[in-house]
Amino acid sequence: MPAQKNPDIDRAAALRASWLSRMPEAAVTEAAACAKVRLVEDGMLIYAHGAACDGLYTLVRGAVRFSRTTADGQASTIAVLDAPTWFGDLSIFDGRPRSYDGYAYGETVLLHHSKADFKRLLARHPQIYERFLRSLSLRLRATFDMVEEAVIAPLPQRLARRLLELAKLKPSAMNSAVMPSGREVPLTQEELGNLLGKSRQSIAKLLRLWEEDGMVETRYGRVSIADPQKLMRVAYPERIG
């Protein structure tokens, strides 16, 4: 990561908005004191697949794209995370190398805790363990849900759910008064296909139909959700009549 002038970040506030929300002030103060600010330009590598764990990252601003490179050299997008959140904890807990390549998507601001500093925080403030245990449990549930979905859900339903998730539109928040249309998903049709294990052609065909129906608008490298409520009915027909 090249040396750059780091932005002026309120470390404590950023941590409270992420993995230290509702934690004791002593834990927040100590964590803020040892956090290093990193500004990462769009497309720059944060860490590589197979790299040794260098600590925990808090995503303060921007987004991170996780991918794996296939045998033919093509990068396959696995997930995109938006701020505020954190990542890199799996390798801390299981001691294994990084599972994916992580790239900044847009100009991205991170807080970094070294592995040693993070483990000291856990030892001094063991209540933090519960936060990460809950997070890992939710990820495991989500993984099981996605496996089940891949087996039984048709492609339109799966694609609609991924678009809504990537745009941060959730079923409980589907209200036109607070969730305006026009939410964009910054992924290509090929990347969406990679996420779902389908070809770009299958995704493109479905998006064309939805565009004709006024649900989405497609542009180079992104999809805009024009009618979230209609797309929600495709994604969750059992919840919305």
Automatic annotation (TrEMBL):
CDD domains: CAP_ED
Molecular function GO labels: DNA binding; DNA-binding transcription factor activity
Keyword Nuclease applies: no
Domain called HTH crp-type: residue spans: 153-229
Source species, domain of life: Bacteria
Keywords attached to this entry: DNA-binding, Transcription, Transcription regulation
GO cellular component, one term: cytosol
UniProt KW Transcription keyword: yes
Chain ranges of the Cyclic nucleotide-binding domain: 19-139
InterPro entries: cNMP-bd_dom, cNMP-bd_dom_sf, Env_Response_Regulators, HTH_CRP, RmlC-like_jellyroll, WH-like_DNA-bd_sf, WH_DNA-bd_sf
Protein name: Transcriptional regulator, Crp/Fnr family
Organism for this UniProt entry: Noviherbaspirillum humi
Native organism taxonomy: Bacteria, Pseudomonadati, Pseudomonadota, Betaproteobacteria, Burkholderiales
